[in-house]
Amino acid sequence: MRILVVEDEKKVASFIKKGLQQEGYAADTVHDGDEAVHNAISFDYDLIVLDLMLPKRSGLDVLRETRRHKPKLPVLVLTAKGSLEEKVAGLDAGADDYLAKPFAFAELSARIRALLRRGKHQSTWLKLADLEMDTASRQVHRAGQTIDLKLKEHALLEFLLRHAHRPVTRTMIVEHVWDIHFDSISNVVDVHINSLRNKIDRGFSPPLIHTIRGVGYMLTDRST
Question: What is the pLDDT of residues 176-210, one digit of tens each?
Fold first, then answer.
């Protein structure tokens, strides 16, 4: 899951980004309205956390422009001091939820999870053959056996499950599992795929992670 954090206060943006990364999300931060519109339209995000008070372009303008191009992208608006006017304006402009500053990260995280579930038709469970993942609790099982995954492995497996039976390129994986500054030349994707294979395929049948030569990878229980 990849989240765009739009916040002009760099300390607040860093606080949010660090918390999201600790929970396994890829997170990008921008600090003004122009950057926000550019990133929201140019890149593929699963959710945006948007402060309304921004330089160069207001958060409401960012929200309206984003809605023109990506009407279904979940947006959580941050408002100052719980201003009723800001809440109403944000919701009218297309926000899916709002949170007043100051806030506890635990509440922000819970609201993000709720919006992501809503966007995925409420279900927190992903399943392929005998492989199951609960995206809310981050529990993974195969053939009834619990599998312990690191945060990036979990994020990678979730992305593969959401694209089951479809080839995904390394670039697609990078854009959803790592942040915008990730070095695409690095072999870290292959390293994480190999680690994931050792955990969810070794000792089980059939193998689910397949290498698609010249393309990338595919998670499937069908013969390739």
Answer: 887 656 665 678 899 999 999 999 999 999 999 99
Q: Encode pLDDT of 68-106 as tens digits.
A: 999 989 999 998 766 777 788 888 888 999 998 889 999
Residue 27 · residue 17 · CB < 8 Å: yes
Q: Which letter does DSSP use for residue 123 in this model?
A: -
82: left (phi over 0), alpha (psi -120 to 50) or beta: left
Residues in the chain: 224
CATH number for 2-119: choose from 3.50.50.60, 1.10.3720.10, 3.40.50.2300, 1.10.10.10.
3.40.50.2300
With a threshold of 0.85, does the pTM exceed it? Answer: no
Helical (H) or strand (E) element with 216 = strand 216-219
- Please give the share of the chain, as a percent, with pLDDT higher than 90: 64
